[in-house]
Amino acid sequence: MTEQIGIEDFLPSIEEALKEACCFEQGCPSRLAEAIRYALLAPGKRLRPGLVLMATEACGGRRDDAMPAAVAIEMIHAYSLVHDDLPAMDDDDLRRGRPTVHVAFDEPTAILVGDALQAEAFSHLVRCNTSVDRIPRVFEAIRVLSVAAGPGHLVGGQYDDLVADGSIDSVASAAPLESSPLESSPSESSKLEKLKSIHRRKTGALFSAALDLGAIFAGAKAEQRSALGRYARDLGLAFQIVDDLLDFTADEKTMGKRVGKDVQRGKLTYPGLLGLPAARDKASRLIQSARQHVGVFGSSGWRLTMLADYVLKRSV
């Protein structure tokens, strides 16, 4: 039986919206369009667009108002996966049980797919919100999504992750060595802080953005957005810790991608630094904290609570 994560009734409308968003303007080569669809419509939990709609509901908004933002953040997520899988990055050949885009097509096409999806995300937000009264919300949504996807968050987190596992030589990089957050001989505590920073940016940034986008299009109050931000920080970090745990404990069939790569590449992970029991305990404490943050929504936040429970169950 499939675990319930609180977005099951959202999925048909999310899938339909994603398919509708795959009608690209004249001039897009047919094979590129096929590759974009392959990336964006790949089987998945649709967690990030689900978070957008969860937040909208919790804040008393309408699902249809937030759907363009749900599509936009899934486009950013899909682009990030396509680029992360590239040989120059994480070098993965399997994603969600299927060949990655650069394997199914080719590497130049995969790079361009990521480029296109990133641009389409922002274009979609604007195209689907043309009424004058929605313009302030669209501007704020663009700001939130661009910051989350930018060099200080998603991209910067991926960069530091690659530096940490040796894929990028931090000494030879363009940035001065003293500006790098990595130490030459870091202590265990500094490794943990570095790992937390990477995870909060790589995974947590889009979780936070998804929930904030939903709140924006619901016209949420500042305290509601703040509570969702705290929830997102804890949930996003717990989610990544559990992903690290599964790389240690799950099999390839269950995960739909290669496992054990983190150990082979010497990547910083919570299980690697803390051991499996302590990593599970940390994930558990983060989920407990996340649940407390959404208490402010009362019964309207039931989906957020269910999702938090699901994230923790993945580690068992």
The dominant shape is globular
**Which structural category fits the helices and strands?**
mainly alpha
> Major sheet: size, sense and barrel closure?
2 strands, antiparallel
Kindly report how far apart the N and C termini lie. 16 Å
SSE string, helices as H and strands as E: HHHHEEHHHHHHHHHHH
Radius of gyration: 19 Å
What do the pLDDT scores average to? 88
Helix content percent band: 55-70%
Topology-level CATH name: Farnesyl Diphosphate Synthase
Order of strands across the biggest sheet? 1-2
Number of strands: 2
Q: Bin the strand percentage.
A: under 5%
Q: Mind telling me the CATH class?
A: Mainly Alpha
Number of helical segments?
15
Tally of distinct domains = 1
Low-confidence stretches: 172-184
Q: Secondary-structure map with pairings?
A:
Elements: H1 11-20, H2 30-40, H3 47-58, H4 63-84, E1 94-95, E2 98-99, H5 101-104, H6 107-127, H7 135-148, H8 154-164, H9 188-217, H10 222-249, H11 252-255, H12 261-265, H13 270-274, H14 276-293, H15 302-313
Antiparallel strand pairs: 1-2
Task: Summarize it.
Its cofactor is Mg(2+). This protein is mainly α.
Could you characterize what this model shows?
Belongs to the FPP/GGPP synthase family. This protein is globular. It has one domain: Farnesyl Diphosphate Synthase, CATH 1.10.600.10. The protein has 15 helices and two strands. Helices cover 66% and strands 1% of the residues. It has 316 residues and is an all-alpha fold. The relative contact order is 0.13.
Task: Pick out its properties.
globular, single chain, Polyprenyl_synt, 66% helix, two-stranded antiparallel sheet, 316 residues, 2 strands, mainly alpha, 15 helices, Farnesyl Diphosphate Synthase
